[in-house]
């Protein structure tokens, strides 16, 4: 896959993926194998970061040979390093050797009980074994000590969603919203949960939060879709009378217009016409008018 | 998975990939768009496929069953395809999914007939496509909602697949 890429380009790409935390393990493994590995002495001190990156990517792709080599090299350079031992634990996890992985993480925590990475890997191990209830419990305990870890709140939200426990998932998002009130993605996700829960109050909350997400980022198409759907839903089901229906119809129409403008201006004309967005939106709005 | 209404072939025509994990809310507008598109092309949604996040988990879950039922309401012979993650590898692909059909007692694993020559050539084609990295061109609705230029119809990729099989 990566044969045509030069060394410098590969190095820059890998660095970008590290900084932006992009997970494209296939590509990283390919860049390493085809381009970088033979010339890795040109990386200087960056080599150790690259080894770590390639190791985790190799584990994603079940390339245990590459992962093992990376860990061995890192171990020689940084003997007894907790960071390397975490990689060793992840190696066991990838091979589904969960007891060995658990041993590794326990011993890391004995040495350093504040190590958040090992604690999170313990949750990951439970998740991998499909022990979701225990993973939820463990993550809740973790968050009592590390309550500002927004990545963990997001993960806990997803665990609750997988169990269809929408109220607790919403609670997690509320924590995220309190600490990140300008993040349009959190507003959108919170709205989606409220929409899924259903009922008039939740639908109104959903509509408000979708609207806030759109206000924070007018390019958020998912939030526009959500605003359109929640307002449409309220226009039909709300028991608050005709005026409320008219208002919701107005919101839905506005959202539909924004969606259409987006598609019309950003999509090639042929694609826009063939996928019939306009027809879809118009049909939906017509059904609201007559409801 | 869409199928032409006027044909009764056992093979399906192109499929559309919806969304990944936890973003199930966005599957609502996605499915609506797909349905509208299908009507315009005289196609019908004939089935639903799913691959679970957990590598070892290839069981039908509540989501798959619910969506499957919805599809079945519009197309009686609807089927569910559950991808077996363990069988999808670049170096070999063999029967990477199970097919389920809806009976009175629920979704049941349908008997796969012995590998026909046709199935074998399809798997060889699949192997060739995976090896060349064609899967990286695939656009799902997540990609589409990130940037509407990303075409969930995957016309070029579907064309490549048709020429291959």
UniProtKB/TrEMBL annotation, chain A:
TM segment ranges: none
InterPro entries for the chain: EMC2-like, TPR-like_helical_dom_sf, TPR_EMC2, TPR_rpt
GO cellular component, one term: EMC complex
Start and end residues of each EMC2 TPR-like domain: 86-194
The keyword Acyltransferase is assigned to this record: no
Keyword Cell membrane: no
Membrane disposition: Peripheral membrane protein
Domain of life (superkingdom): Eukaryota
Alphabetic keyword roster: Coiled coil, Endoplasmic reticulum, Membrane, Repeat, TPR repeat
Coiled-coil positions: 84-111
UniProt signal peptide: none
Protein's cellular compartments: Endoplasmic reticulum membrane
SMART domains documented for this protein: TPR (SM00028)
Pfam family, one: TPR_8
Function: Part of the endoplasmic reticulum membrane protein complex (EMC) that enables the energy-independent insertion into endoplasmic reticulum membranes of newly synthesized membrane proteins.
Family of this protein: Belongs to the EMC2 family.
Oligomeric and partner information: Component of the ER membrane protein complex (EMC).
Protein name: ER membrane protein complex subunit 2
Natural source organism: Elysia marginata
UniProtKB/TrEMBL annotation, chain B:
Pfam family, one: UPF0172
Record-linked InterPro entries: EMC8/9
Domain of life of the source: Eukaryota
GO cellular component: EMC complex
Protein name: ER membrane protein complex subunit 8
Organism: Elysia marginata
Classification of source organism: Eukaryota, Metazoa, Spiralia, Lophotrochozoa, Mollusca
